[in-house]
Amino acid sequence: MEKEYKLKMSDTFRKMSAIYFIVGLWKIDQWKASFRQIFAFLLFVICMISICVKAFKTDDKDESVFLGVTTLIGLIQIYRLYYIIWNEKKVIDLMYASSTSCTDDYETFFHVNKKLANFTTFTKCFLVATFALFIITAFTPLLTKQLIFNFAFPLDYKTDEGAFWIAYVFIATSFLLSVTCCLFTSMVWYIMMNFVVKFELLGNDFKNLVVVRIEKQDADSLTNRQAKQTLYLRHLIEAIKSLESTTELLEEFASTFSNLFLLQIFTSSLCICGGVYSLAFSSHDDPIQDGFYAIVLFYCFFDTFTLMYLGNEIMFSSDRLSYCLFESNWIEQTQCCKRSIIIVVERLKQPQQIIVCKLFPLTLESFSIIVNRAYSMFNILQNFRT
Fold first, then answer.
1. Rounded distance, CA 12 to CA 41, Å?
2. What is the pLDDT of residues 299-357, one digit of tens each?
3. 85 touches 37 (CB < 8 A)
């Protein structure tokens, strides 16, 4: 029987997808990359290479650390840009598949719908803040006639005004591409949030086996115990099938983005450590540059924390499924049905987790390990500095 209340893809994230089509990073013909896509990708790669070269060539150790952090962040953004251009269909399919859910319980539907609305508001705030910071970063050099940070460039942009404008356009365009990668990041977060909602709806289905649907059936046809038991078993099978499909979709999501997550986990400690180091030991003569250091540190911390938090929420929501099934009307079922329930409960005792390359689970515990490593590396850098 088709369920009454349905969740569909958010209009906000649908518009984000449309932005990629408008700017040309996504296209209807997915067989080969367009010139615009290849040009954007190569431009961003060249920008990151120039920053990396400057990090090795500069004599200022503090500047070298900051440019190294910027290079690591850029490396993650390059990989995201690769996903945007060459894995477009997979991302769109996962967004649509994960956002499609349904339930019979209006109260639960209202709760998860509100949860998704709050998450969408949070994402909007993140993107607005990101765009505002991009505007500040992009237009500040126009007032100061000085780039926020140095990078390797064949022309002398510090003394030649023409070279300065070429370098400015080069950096500003690269920053804009980085902002588009933030759109992709929010889409990944949205997919993960949809998995949290799916497991919550499954928990409600397990908890309310028969109860919700009995109210919609003819009361006389369900007066005998055998009919109720048959209905319970049928709805249990439906819930298990839904669980299996959700689990398969989660595994597909994890396998699709495992390399990206692995790169982010490996570099996050270095990025957080470098961001703290740059902010702590900067000369503080230029408040604009200090503000940029703070932005980089906040972005590194916030990006990693949100990913780990959503992974932890997926684990937590799936972990409640066994208890939700225990809360159902299982005690009145037949012995055969009870045995099936015991098997399902044992299966549900193992919560679903996103484990990157079978090594790193996306949990808050992993985030605490990342922060601790960043603190340890900061102490090492501080000792070398003194």
1. 25
2. 888 899 999 999 999 999 999 888 888 877 777 777 777 777 788 888 888 888 898 88
3. yes
Contact 178, 81 (CB under 8 A): no
Number of alpha carbons in the 13 Å side-chain half-sphere of residue 176 = 13
In this predicted model, what pLDDT tens digit does every residue of 80-90 receive, in sequence order?
A: 998 888 888 88
Four-point Cα dihedral 255, 260, 265, 266, nearest 10? 120
Q: Is 66 exposed, middle or buried (0-12, 13-18, 19+ CB in 10 A)?
A: buried
Gap between the Cα atoms of 301 and 324, Å rounded? 34
Q: 355-358: which pairs have CB atoms within 8 A and are 24 or more residues apart?
A: 355/254, 356/254, 356/258, 356/261, 356/262, 356/265, 357/258, 357/259, 357/262
Cα angle, residue 36 at apex, residues 303 and 156 outer, rounded to 5°: 75
Work out whether strand 355-356 and strand 101-103 pair parallel, antiparallel, or are unpaired: unpaired
Helices 287-319 + 61-86 axis angle, to 10: 50
Contact (Cβ atoms closer than 8 angstroms) between residue 362 and residue 310: yes
| Helix, strand, coil distribution of the chain in percent, nearest 5 | 80, 5, 20
Paired sense of beta strands 101-103 and 5-7, if any: antiparallel
Q: Cβ atoms within 10 A of the Cβ of 11, count?
A: 9
**How many CB atoms within 10 Å of residue 63?**
16
Percent of the chain at pLDDT > 70 equals: 90
If you average pLDDT over every residue of the chain, what do you get?
84
Q: Distance between CA atoms of 193 and 196, rounded to whole angstroms? A: 5
**Mean pLDDT on 352-373:** 89
Rounding to the nearest 10 degrees, give the CA dihedral for residues 150, 152, 157, 159: 80
pLDDT at 44 over 80: yes
Rounded CA-CA distance 195/55 in Å is 40
> Which pTM was predicted?
0.90
CA–CA separation, 84 vs 106, rounded Å? 36
Tokens of 27: 């296209």
Q: Which residue has the tokens 């993650």?
A: 76
- Amino acid sitting at position 71: T
pLDDT in tens, 107-124: 888 889 999 999 999 999
pLDDT at 213 over 50: no
